[in-house]
Amino acid sequence: MAYIYPAPGVSGVQLTLKLKVTGDTTGLTVPALQDVTVNNANDVFTWTQLDSGSKLQIATTSTNSLSGNIVLDQDSFFGVTTSGEEAKTSGIFGLSKDKQIVNFELYMGDESDGSAGKTLSGSGYVTGLAPTVSADAPVWVSPFTLTITGDFTVA
């Protein structure tokens, strides 16, 4: 069995999230990820029939999202002007505020046998930003959600 290891702090092995806008060459690698959740929730249509004592169900379309928490970095959150790189120029906040569709790649980390891991990709919108700071957590932290339009692609 090959478990997936995100290996924090190990170059080339760790979980990475990259955001691109159509036309970007390199895109924006989201720094300081604290956690990530991948959600693939199928909707279900339910009905009853007079000839059955149980409800019947069938899966329909799914709602897909990717969410997590990040420690905010000024350049990636607010953007840095980079020629030909819309995601880097807009930053995470700008991509959300401007309602720009982004293409994402989530590399999930290497497997236990050292072979390359899988990448989830797709497109969607950055939502759910809510930066907070407190005396107990003296750096800005924010949840984020990528609300996916369409399907996840696995490579």
Fill in the keyword field for this structure.
10 strands; two-stranded antiparallel sheet; Elongation Factor Tu (Ef-tu), domain 3; mainly beta
Topology, element by element:
Blueprint: E1 4-5, E2 16-20, E3 28-29, E4 33-47, E5 56-71, H1 74-78, H2 86-97, E6 101-107, E7 110-111, E8 119-127, E9 141-148, E10 153-154
Antiparallel strand pairs: 1-7, 2-3, 2-6, 4-5, 5-9, 6-8, 8-9, 8-10
What does this molecule look like?
This protein has helices at residues 74-78, 86-97; strands at residues 4-5, 16-20, 28-29, 33-47, 56-71, 101-107, 110-111, 119-127, 141-148, 153-154. The protein is globular and about 65 Å long. The chain starts with a strand and ends with a strand. Helices cover 11% and strands 44% of the residues. The strands form 2 sheets. Strands 2, 3, 4, 5, 6, 8, 9 and 10 form an 8-stranded antiparallel sheet that branches. It has 155 residues and is mainly β. The protein has a single domain (7-154), classed as Beta Barrel (Elongation Factor Tu (Ef-tu), domain 3). The chain contains 2 helices and 10 strands, in the order E-E-E-E-E-H-H-E-E-E-E-E. A hairpin with an 8-residue loop joins strand 4 and strand 5.
